[in-house]
Each structure stands twice: as structure tokens, then as C-alpha cells.
């Protein structure tokens, strides 16, 4: 397997020095011979080396450097004299592109090229300049480089000043994007493009299809009613909280927190002016039912808010136990089920309100938010778009795209079999070499002290784990979701890549 990473270890820097010597001393007579047969670049401490492996053997490399002056500046003067100003906003120089002789095949050059595209684009460079050997002019041109000044160097080692801009690399990067393998917990990659619909949301046909979708959602959730809105999970939670504000304007409630999204729910509740107390049990820790009951025994609480599937740390919180407490103390239980709905079978019968979305475990286009209700909400002081009784009264008060309704109806046909699919996918993750934690089959959490380096290697090779959020970065965590359509094939390749990546850390 050919794969790329950023060089980081002493062993990799030794291999770079050896390949540097082989290429730029023995093959291209640019430097003097030495008995160690190693050449350390004069800008070594400023270089970022992107290297290519064949399994565990380093076979190719290229160096990025953005400290001025560039080596090409010394040959032709500042490159700004030749290039447009917008191209020069954030320049880097590519140097030392080299591949071992017995690995000079299309796959290695393709891997190097794709690593160049991904790295320079992700770091935010506006362009890369290079002194490309005339021997490989065709290869550089195929990669998107273009010559911008006259050739330099000696007859034995002649080079072309060339540049690769973000614009000139756009076609290549779009091809790479289409090849990316993603493991995000949403949005879901669509296997088929959405087809715009001209069916009016005021038509009888639309009303029939909407009723069918709502019926399917309620059957899957074992809920009595559902209100769909165009929006995200955050909007769904705001709609739920706005309704609670109308029902309990002065009464107190509890918010249970053990992760990022529980904390976000608490913050949203505070913004609505709800009178709440927070029970925070710590990141990923289970709720203490006895502690919660002790709060309820004091009296005065009218509702509990919690996140059922806490995506941030793959924790499934105890709906059944909380439901028993709510029934015992005659209070309302409300849940953010955005990550759990569609990933496991459960009943919302005991929930006063619950929220979900289309673009998570259901596995379809993001864009619809759902508020499930045990009873029809009667009155609300919330703004019109978030006013749940208004949706009951008007049925379809605002534009609801037909293709959203159609997409959700289509994926509902995949249940209950999809539950088993997601469970098998999670078993594949747990049975791999990765040390993950997960308590429900939507997302697995993986912690490693060198996670930033691992994620960079994955991204250079077109594998995108969920790891960019600040709450994940600060904990050295990445996550792998099961909900993307090509999981089985993509995870097999990811597992192979990670086997080699972990050997080189």
C-alpha cells in the first residue's frame, strides 16, 4: 500500500537524507559526494516533509517551506516580480521532490501529487513555487504547474521556475474530493444526487406524502406526534426549549450533562431564560440515578432535559431509568435524540418532547429537524418559526421542500434492517486494532496522544475522521461514525492505512 504522511521521526529524517543524497548528488549532480552518503538540506529545520511510504518503506518525498527568501528567490530574484499579487498573498516553496528509482511508477507520483494538493490547500497557501528539473517538465505540467520565468541552473542540472496556484489545482482537488472517504457523524454523503421538485408544499399530493413521512417517523420512534421544520438539530432543540419556556415560565427544571452536547443544551436553555439547575457528572461519565432522584425529592422541578446519544464521547444515556424517575415524580422528560434516533431501536413514549434530524443516523440529506411530542402542544410564546402549536394549527405553515420529505420517506423503508447494519459496522470497528469506546452503534471514540499526527496522515490519504472540533482536539480524540453509505469498503481501507501509520509513530 502506498500512503503519505508528514515526516516526524528521526528514522524518517535519516531516510530523507539518504534519498536526498541519492537524488541530488548521485543522480542530479547538484552537490558534492560524501562518505556518509547522506545529504541534509540547508533549510532542513524550516522544511515540512511530506513523504510517501510503500507499506513501511519510505520511497518518496517533497519538502514545503514558507520562510523567505526562497531558494528560487536567490536564483531569479523575488518571485513577486513575475506573479500576480493575489497569487503571492501566502506563498510556499516546494523543493526536494524525489522518488526512489525502483518505485518510479504512476502510483507513487500520484500519491505525491495528491499529498501536495491536499497539504498546500489545507494549510491555506495561495500558491506553491518550485524549481522543477527540466527532466520532469511533463510531470509538473500534468500536476498543474506552469512555468513563469526562464530556466536557471547548469546544463547538468537545469531547472524551470514553476508555480501551482489554488485556482490551477481546483480541477485536481475536485477529483480528490470525490474520492475522499469520510467517517463524519453528519452530514451524510449522498449516493444519489438530490433532484429538485416542482411539487408545491400546498398541494394535496405533498400533504399526502408529508403525512406518510410523519407516520413513518412516529412508527420508528414509537411517538404520538412529530413536527418537521427546515433546519438543524440546534434549531430543533431551540424549538423544544421555546415550548418549555411557554409551558413552564417560572418553574424549575434539571439539565443533565456529561459531554459537549449536554453542555450546549444547557447553554441554549439558559439563553431561553429557563429556570434550570445543571447536574454535570463529568465528561463521558454515566448519570448517577440516585443523585438525580435526590434532587427530585427536594421537589419543585417540573422537567428534566438530557442528551440521549452524547455524540462527543459516544455515550448512550439511560432513557429507561430516567423515564421511570419522571413517571415516579410526575415530571416531564425531554431529550435530545439527534444522534441516537435511527441508530438504535427505542421508544419515545415516555418523552414529553424529543428532537432528531434527517442527516444523522437516518442516513439521508441534512435539512429537516424533527420535534416529537407526546401530546399536541397547545400554546406558545415562541417566535413564529419556532412556535410548535402554529405548526399543528397550520399543518404546513412554511415552505417545506418536497425532496427533503421524499428523501426521508425513502430511508425509512430501510428500517428496521438498518439497525442491524449499523450494529455490524460498529462491531467491525470494535474488532479492529483501534482502541475505541462506544456504547451505541452510531459513533466510536478513539483517544491517542499523537492524534493530531494521525489525523493529518489520514487526511493526506483522503480519509476524514471526525476530529476538527475544539472539544475533540483538546482531548486528543478522533471519532469514526458508522452512518456513511460506503462504510464497509472505506473502513477496510482505513484500517489498513492505520496499521502502517501506527507503526511509524
From TrEMBL:
Keywords associated with the record: Aminotransferase, Pyridoxal phosphate, Transferase
Pfam families: Aminotran_5, FeeM
Cofactor(s) named in the record: pyridoxal 5'-phosphate
N-acetyltransferase domain location: 4-167
Residues in coiled coil: none
UniProt xrefs under InterPro entries: Acyl_CoA_acyltransferase, Aminotrans_V_dom, FeeM_cat, GNAT_dom, PyrdxlP-dep_Trfase, PyrdxlP-dep_Trfase_major
PROSITE patterns membership: GNAT (PS51186)
PANTHER family in the record: 2-AMINOETHYLPHOSPHONATE--PYRUVATE TRANSAMINASE
Protein name (Swiss-Prot/TrEMBL): Septum site-determining protein
Protein source organism: Solibacillus kalamii
